Every structure is written in C-alpha cells, then in structure tokens.
Amino acid sequence: MQVLNIETVKQQLTMTMAIEAIEDLLQVQHKNPSWVKTPERLVIATHKDSDKHQTGSHLTMPSVVFDGSAEYAVVKLVTICPDNPARNKPTTVATITVSDTATGETLAFMDGIYVTQVRTAALSGVATKYMANPDSKTVAVVGTGGMAYEQLNAVLTVCPNITEVTLWNRTTDKAHDFKAAFERDYSQWDVTLTVCDTVEEAVKEADVINLATRATKGLFEVEQIKANAHINAVGAYQPNMKEVSDSVIESSAYVVIDDLEGGKHEAGGLIQAHDNTDCDWQWNKLSGQLIDLVSGELKVETGGDSKGITLFKSVGAASFDAAVALKIALAAKRDQLGQAVAL
C-alpha cells in the first residue's frame, strides 16, 4: 500500500487531469451505468451550534468503479469543521482509501483534502465548459474560503479568455488574503483580481459567478446579475442553507445538478425553492444532471447574449472522488510514489 500525504497528492494532481477524470467517468457511467456503484452517503451532524462550536458534519462516501478491465473500491471519510479556519486548518478534512475488489488489496491511502478541493472545483469546471459563454471575460468569486482557490482555477482552465476577477467575502480581510495567495500560488493566470466591498458590486458585471458559502439566504437577486451569467454554486450544502435566491433559480434558463439523489437531500437552495409556494420552480423543472451535459443528451446554447442565466448546483458524490483518487492511486502503485507500507 502506498501512503500519500497532501504534498505528494498535490504533485500528482492537476486541474486538467481532474476535469478529464470526471468527464471520463460520466461517459463510462452513461454507456455502462452498472459499472459505477455509488450508494447514498452517510451524513452525521457533529456538535450543536454554541459559543464553543459551530455545527459540522461527518460523511462516509463509498463508491465501486469498474474501468473495463478491473474494479476498485474507493472510500472517502470527510469531517467538515466550520471552526477550523480560526485554527488555521482547512474546513474540510478528508482521507481516501483505494482498494482492488478482486483481491481486497489496499492500493493507496491518501490525504483527501486536496482531492476534495480539486474534484469539487473540477465539477464546476466541467459545468462551466458546457454551460458558460466561452468568450467570458469576468468571473466573480463569492466566498473566499479554501474551496474557492481551485474553483477559480477550474473556471480559468476552461475559460482562458477571462481577464478580470472580482472577489467578495463577508470578512473583507479574507478576500484580500485570497487575492494575495492566488496571485502568489496561481501565477500562471494573467488576471486582475479586485476586492469588492459588496456582493452586488462583485457580481453585477460577471459572466461567471462562483459561490462557495455557508449562507442561509440568497446572496443576490436576478436583477443584480447579467442576463446571461453562468453560476457555479458549491456551498449551501445543507437543507437549511441557501446562497442562490429563488428569483435567480426560477429565472434560470437551465438548472443542472451534479447528483440528483444527493441534491434532493442536501441542495438547500433548490430544496427551499421547491418548497416555497411563491417560487415558480419545482424539481420537475430541473434541466438535467452533469452526466447529461457530458454525454450530449442535454445541450446548452452558450454563445451570445440570449442564452439566459445558467445555474450549476454541486453537492458532490463519491464517484467523483473515486474517479480522481483512482488516477492518483494507480500512478502511485506504478511509480512507487509516497511511502510503501505493508499491512
């Protein structure tokens, strides 16, 4: 078994690799649905909101993937710790195991923090590739926590014409920290980053809007954004959370989710829109899932001003982690990466 720490994972995993891994998985799943088995993940709430702790959660996320020649079991264990930023630790902490189901041999045990960040971002990258105007010039980053770095990296990977990035965070200092860190660590992108005082200022001219927050109500209304903006919403991961307002959801020409089964339990914005009798959006108006975009069953006209608002909601699924982690694990076994440990 190869043990891979976060630095080794970072050396192996690129955004392009993650995007390709997810697209390949969805193509396989479309052609051979039985090759990918992903039961509903187990979510356990941790702590009660108090002066000492914010409510977090622990998730167990298994998946079994057959690639046409061999089958693998991939399990991710995640603990979401909202108090961690104050401890200078990531909010999402994770580990991943990859096993060969024929022999039961564990091929790799790896840190899952970076895998989670990159695969979550890569989902936004895939959605942006198929739903955003390819000539997009401006992206807004709303919520500048740990997930936001790779989410922006993913959008820039698929929309190379972007030159302007606007930033907003409830705590302005963290937006400035994001700006400095992104300019330092992602210097391959020739973009201008501007910190905005209000979310309205950040999103008003954005062609693409990235959301990654724990908000409990919509952050902006439909009249405050461009009529053909594309939105990637990866925050608001519990039913009581909401970062996309009902006015945006019901006005969107296309609403796509990565995993419908998980979304009906966890996609707070869509759940609340569906339950709101004053909102003209129901689950039966969902345009489709990410697999429909990649397979070509759902086509979005992305060019021109008339495409309308497009919305991608991500809740994540173990199969996406499996696709990315499996590539790393097989490379680790082949090249003896990390530390070899005998069980």
Automatic annotation (TrEMBL):
This is Ornithine cyclodeaminase. It comes from the Bacteria. InterPro entries: NAD(P)-bd_dom_sf (IPR036291), ODC_Mu_crystall (IPR003462), ODC_N (IPR023401). GO terms for cellular component: cytoplasm. It comes from Psychrobacter phenylpyruvicus. Signal peptide: none annotated.
